[in-house]
Design goal:
Radius of gyration: 30 Å
Number of helices: 12
Helix content: 10-25%
Largest sheet: 6 strands, mixed
């Protein structure tokens, strides 16, 4: 899923979000709509105040779940005196979302709100919010109490449902057993060290004033790690209580909170809390700045969005429409390569999602490709020398390196070559002034019997456009620089389509792994050029991957490695390249990449079968390697190989371009703290614990939202001893 840049929150108030899902066909008096509460509805608020978060509604079409924009949603309070909902009518945006704010009345009790849309077939959606006074703690017994025992909290203004209360002992959440409006029975967390803690009672965002409690605890064995060693904790018992030992003033630990779920739709809200002696200083500023920039421009996000859109369209193609991978034209004598000056027509997908009929002329024929140019191409573009140079580059190393790694492309037209078509139809696909542009693409439709198929292996490219006749101006030198890496990337997609769709008659690979493999093709060509001493040419292919990697590393908890919501993001692309670079370095190199390409398996199953490792262990080891490899803080330490990259030194690569390494863990003192975030699937947050002086023992609790125990597999915490 796509996310904006965000920050790890330390501390953070976890706001409840209410959304009402409205589905249906908006046409007609019935409309085919339904409305329902979506997500976690807020349950409590302080009397006489506006709820901290708006009530949100998402309207979708009942038949297919499509969000509906510009739909009027009506809101009304149906129970509770003095409450107001504003506005009374709101309109959905392009994502189908509308919102309104609820102001609770002056009296405690139940307030009910309904939201509806015209023509809803199953009535309005209703939800209930309790207005409460601030809870008060009058006494806690016994005091002191052993960790893990039960206390009785007496007071006022507790809620009607015992399990709705969040009772915090310092930063750790207790388990509520029973209760009433004046009394709660709560289990003291067993992970609390011997100390005094502040106890608070919360009902949603409404929190009591703290009350002191002395907790007694028996000494327990801590987690002891040598410098450079790491441990990954996955079981609920391990995550509930991690004890770090006392240490010298130089003590440092890297904590990596991970969502190791293999379902891209499973986000993980978490809270990492710590308790030691009394707090003597606040946490360090948790919002470090990141600045990584490279001096080259390129297709950027706009081009990546189009690439993802094409891959999504290919996943909707039926394998029954696949052409034979080796065409019949050669047997019929029609597969000979054309000659310079020959012309033919192509159907090219255009900016309006239709197809433009293009007449193109052969400008160059190399050993592996035929270069066509649209007869409408502006003057002042490629010369014959430029076409010849592109032909040499494609033949070797692009074709040779990519084919030797991933396998053979198809040859449905029997001419033994790839068609490379330069056409201003591609230029027109990018609106003027866009951030990035579409440089070129392969579309698997051409290898099927579907309408508008050209029945040939084709890479479509933009043309030089020095005067901006078909969009923004594109200098010939810029096109010559930008197109080759895209050609390598799309050529891998072409091979991948052949290996799965044509040869094995299965659907295309999931988005994240398809893109990871294609970005690896850019890397492979760069390596081939570097072996020949062509460093500057190699950088043209390697820099785009580093650019995308830098965006991911600046916020690794903000992008899912396995995100499958089209069109994806550059941050996700960066994660995918980094992960596959790591995995290929440890589990077979080019052989692994070939295995991942030539298979009927998909996604996580494909990777775990090819490596023989579990998904959670791969994610944990990779997350350590991202930071630990060549880390200055670990100088002189011999890391386990699995905690390193076997085929690249990322810090050195960034340094070559004058950039600092973007991955900066959030620094925290080894004192009381709470760190909260929501991680998308297959992502991670990094925190660096730093001793403020002599490091005291520190007890950690890694839990779900607001400290509740995790209820599903997926969360894991890796701890690396740095000093």
């Amino acid at each position: 899923m796509r996310r904006d840049r965000r920050e790890l929150r330390i501390p953070v108030a976890i706001a409840a979000v209410l959304a009402l899902t409205v589905c249906g066909d908006p046409s007609g008096p019935q409309g085919g709509r339904s409305i329902a509460i979506h997500g976690e509805a807020p349950r409590y608020g302080l009397v006489g105040t506006v709820l901290e978060t708006p009530l949100r509604v998402v309207v979708t079409r009942r038949s297919n779940g499509e969000p509906l924009g510009r739909v009027s949603v009506s809101w009304r309070v149906v129970q509770g005196s003095g409450a107001r909902i504003e506005p009374a009518t709101s309109q959905t945006d392009s994502a189908g979302i509308a919102s309104a704010y609820l102001r609770l009345g002056p009296e405690p009790g139940s307030y009910r709100v309904e939201a509806w849309v015209p023509g809803a077939v199953d009535g309005p959606a209703g939800f209930e919010v309790y207005a409460v006074h601030r809870p008060e703690i009058l006494a806690i017994t016994p005091d002191p109490v052993p960790a893990g025992d039960v206390v009785r909290i007496t007071g006022r203004n507790f809620g009607p449902v015992p399990e709705d209360h969040v009772v915090l002992f310092g930063n750790f959440r207790g388990t509520v057993l029973d209760g009433s409006s004046t009394e709660l029975e709560v289990v003291v967390p067993g992970c609390i060290p011997q100390r005094s803690v502040s106890v608070t009672v919360e009902l949603g965002p409404v929190r009591s004033l703290p009350a002191p409690l002395r907790v007694e605890a028996e000494p327990e064995s801590p987690l002891v790690l040598e410098r450079g060693r790491a441990a990954t904790l996955t079981s609920p018992g391990e995550l509930a209580c991690i004890r770090l030992p006392a240490g010298p003033a130089s003590a440092r630990y890297l904590l990596i909170a991970q969502n190791a779920h293999d379902d891209p739709d499973r986000d993980l809200p978490f809270q990492l809390a710590a308790l030691t002696g009394p707090l003597t200083a606040p946490p360090l500023d948790p919002t470090p700045t990141h600045s990584v920039a490279f001096a080259t421009g390129g297709p950027g996000e706009f081009g990546a969005l189009w690439d993802a859109e094409l891959r999504a369209r290919e996943r909707r193609l039926s394998p029954a429409a696949a052409l034979p991978a080796r065409g019949e034209l050669r047997a019929l004598g029609a597969g000979a390569a054309p000659k310079v000056g020959d012309r033919r027509q192509f159907r090219v997908i255009n900016k309006d999602d239709g197809f433009t009929r293009v007449t193109a002329e052969v400008m160059h024929v190399s050993g592996r490709a035929v270069f066509y140019q649209d007869v409408r191409a502006p003057a002042g573009g490629f010369t014959a020398t430029d076409f010849a140079a592109l032909g040499r580059l494609f033949d070797d190393p692009i074709y040779e390196a990519v084919v030797s790694t991933f396998g053979e492309p198809s040859d449905v037209d029997g001419d033994g070559r790839i068609t490379i078509l330069f056409t201003p139809v591609v230029n027109e696909m990018t609106p003027r002034g866009s951030n990035g542009f579409i440089a070129g693409f392969f579309y698997g439709l051409d290898l099927t019997t579907e309408p508008n198929s050209n029945r040939a292996e084709i890479f479509y490219s933009l043309v030089p456009d020095p005067n901006g006749d078909f969009g923004d101006r594109r200098a010939t030198s810029d096109v010559l620089r930008v197109v080759p890496p895209v050609l390598a990337h799309e050529f891998q997609h072409m091979i991948h389509f052949n290996q799965r769709f044509l040869l094995r008659r299965v659907g295309t690979e999931v988005q994240w792994l398809s893109e990871a493999l294609a970005h690896s093709a850019e890397d492979i060509v760069a390596a081939a050029l570097r072996e020949r001493g062509q460093e500057s040419d190699a950088d043209v292919f390697s820099i785009p991957n580093l650019q995308r990697a830098s965006r991911f590393l600046a916020d690794p908890g903000g992008a899912s490695l396995i995100g499958d919501d089209p069109p994806g993001s550059l941050e996700e692309r960066g994660a995918q390249w980094l992960f596959l670079k790591y995995v290929s370095g440890h589990y077979g190199g080019a052989d692994l990449l070939r295995t991942l390409t030539q298979t009927t398996r998909s996604g996580v199953d494909n990777v775990t079968a090819a490596t023989g490792r579990s998904w959670s262990s791969l994610l944990a080891d990779w997350s350590v390697a991202l930071w630990a490899h060549s880390a200055p803080e670990l100088q002189g330490v011999t890391l386990e190989p699995r905690f390193t990259y076997a085929n690249v030194d990322l810090r050195q690569e960034f340094q070559r371009f004058g950039a600092s390494y973007p991955l900066e863990p959030v620094p925290l003192l080894m004192q009381d703290f709470v760190a909260s975030d929501t991680l998308p699937a297959a992502s991670m947050d990094y925190l660096l614990l730093v001793a403020p002086g002599s490091a005291p023992p520190l007890n950690l609790n890694f839990a779900g939202k607001r400290g509740a125990p995790f209820s599903e597999p997926g969360p894991q915490l890796t701890i690396l001893r740095v000093r």
